[in-house]
Amino acid sequence: xxxxxxxxxxxxxxxxxxxxxxxxxxxxxxxxxxxxxxxxxxxxxxxxxxxxxxxxxxxxxxxxxxxxxxxxxxxxxxxxxxxxxxxxxxxxxxxxxxxxxxxxxxxxxxxxxxxxxxxxxxxxxxxxxxxxxxxxxxxxxxxxxxxxxxxxxxxxxxxxxxxxxxxxxxxxxxxxxxxxxxxxxxxxxxxxxxxxxxxxxxxxxxxxxxxxxxxxxxxxxxxxxxxxxxxxxxxxxxxxxxxxxxxxxxxxxxxxxxxxxxxxxxxxxxxxxxxxxxxxxxxxxxxxxxxxxxxxxxxxxxxxxxxxxxxxxxxxxxxxxxxxxxxxxxxxxxxxxxxxxxxxxxxxxxxxxxxxxxxxxxxxxxxxxxxxxxxxxxxxxxxxxxxxxxxxxxxxxxxxxxxxxxxxxxxxxxxxxxxxxxxxxxxxxxxxxxxxxxxxxxxxxxxxxxxxxxxxxxxxxxxxxxxxxxxxxxxxxxxxxxxxxxxxxxxxx
Length: 493
What we know:
- By secondary structure, the protein is α/β, with parallel strands linked by helices.
- It has helices spanning 2-11, 15-34, 43-46, 53-75, 114-125, 145-153, 166-175, 193-197, 253-256, 292-304, 317-329, 346-353, 369-376, 393-400, 411-423, 425-438, 447-466; strands at 101-107, 131-137, 156-159, 180-183, 203-206, 221-225, 240-244, 279-283, 308-312, 337-339, 358-360, 381-384, 407-408.
């Protein structure tokens, strides 16, 4: 309960109370780790806190090991005996064409969720002459367009019922003879990590939802890039790493939201309560990512950029009052803030993002899906590159769209970049034009290119496994630009 209370304090902008209680909590966690006890802090909460990356790694590792121990205790077996997959026989003839690799993806988020939004195109772009794709959904059909398209277009779409325990679900996967199984949840809501502890596939990969190591011996690979996970951070992972050539994150913008590239049918600022001639800074991140130090930086930016406003999500009343009080104490009036309306369909959300001038990224936990949303909307970001995976995603996105100038390495530089864009209309317009043009050519939005690299990684990890070799770090090829006229099914069509 105490650990949850600390996270709730951060998520409601009670920064003073959060800081005091976090110190107490971390003393407890360090003692728990030292004595091999399960930390009371959840891994997903830990990545939002100003903690050393080693502590974040150890929290994830402890929770993953506890899951494994629970399974071993229940089954009364050793870890080496947790292997539900069957060893496949070699082809009968050396001349026989290699069988298709069977790739399975397990997620609670094949519904109306950012994971489905980001992953849809990649899942549909796999080379079906070489790969057979299986999707295992932990959640029931929410009738969203994402779910409808994936169920319709992926023949091997399976439901893992909540009524079935982890072992039964793992057996369902093993019965499909999956070669490589991808965990798209890790330490996030809805996870069924116990399924992976049973080893339903000979190779198991963790990707996308959780920004860091899963910390489990039953997961072999983690998908990263050299920005979010530079070589000097290698010890922060228990898995072998797949270093994607550009950005680790894939997306579906080109297929799902091409109309954002056109200036027609976009809303007006008046439609969203924004002043027509103001400089609009924007940050549409969750409250748990807005820390005191980054909010005070935003206040200083507003002070230095006349006729500017900050556009945020409309958060719970108590949190909004705390934000406005913190601003007022620093001499900024409530009229400098605009709170967006309710959640809306993704396409409408992207359209309203085009009304912003500059996206101000959060720091300890950057905008991940949010960051790529703003870039596709043609809004330059200012991001502060940190020392952990979640604090380096903004830099990875910026580099993959060819906008390295948007990256700051300290708070002073972050503020200067934002102020320069806010006060220099010509520089801002040049950056907007550069970004909008980059959307047509940048690797970040070239999903087919990302898939080509990922398939190379899948092939190489399987070839190592087939030769009896242990997993090792992989640097997949960059197949080059694959921009295309979309032929994929669009949600709702």
